[in-house]
Specification:
The protein is an alpha+beta fold. The chain has one domain (31-109, 117-125): Alpha-Beta Plaits, CATH 3.30.70.240. Helices cover 30% and strands 23% of the residues. The chain contains 4 helices and 6 strands, in the order E-H-E-H-E-E-H-E-H-E. It has a 4-stranded antiparallel sheet with strand order 3-4-2-5. Strands 1-6 form a two-stranded antiparallel ribbon. The radius of gyration is 17 Å and the shape is elongated. The termini are far apart.
Length: 125
């Protein structure tokens, strides 16, 4: 079984950093206060399942049928979690969120047909 570390920078050619040098930020770099959160759910009723999936799509990237990766600041996560709680039936459904620190998130391993969920952002001036 082969595994690969999901490292989007490994796909960047060396000339990229010469062409686009890093510029210091006036404040904090984008995403500095974000934490990777893995959210999974098991929803028993199809209508609620659809609603929960739509909420998750608003905040993260689907990596499996009922599993999402979300990179959120604490306030965004709280808003997300409260929206999920509004949609589920706590007697029948289950939602779980695992917060993953930056060091561990960098060591994410994948195998098989999975695509890294890093979103590339490009600004054209």
């Amino acid at each position: 079984m082969h595994s690969a570390i999901c490292n989007p920078q490994s796909a960047i050619p060396p000339w990229w950093f010469d062409a686009f040098p890093l510029v210091p930020y006036e404040k904090a770099p984008p995403g500095e206060k974000q934490m990777l959160t893995l959210v999974a759910y098991d929803i028993s009723e199809p209508k609620r399942l659809t609603k929960v999936a739509h909420v998750c799509e608003d905040y993260g990237v689907r990596v499996q049928y009922s599993v999402f990766e979300c990179r959120l600041q604490e306030a965004e996560f709280t808003e997300f979690w409260l929206r999920l709680l509004e949609e589920i039936d706590e007697e029948e459904d289950r939602v779980v969120a695992y917060k993953i620190d930056a060091r561990s998130a960098k060591e994410t391993m994948t195998a098989g047909r999975m695509i890294c969920s890093e979103k590339a952002v490009c600004y054209l001036v």
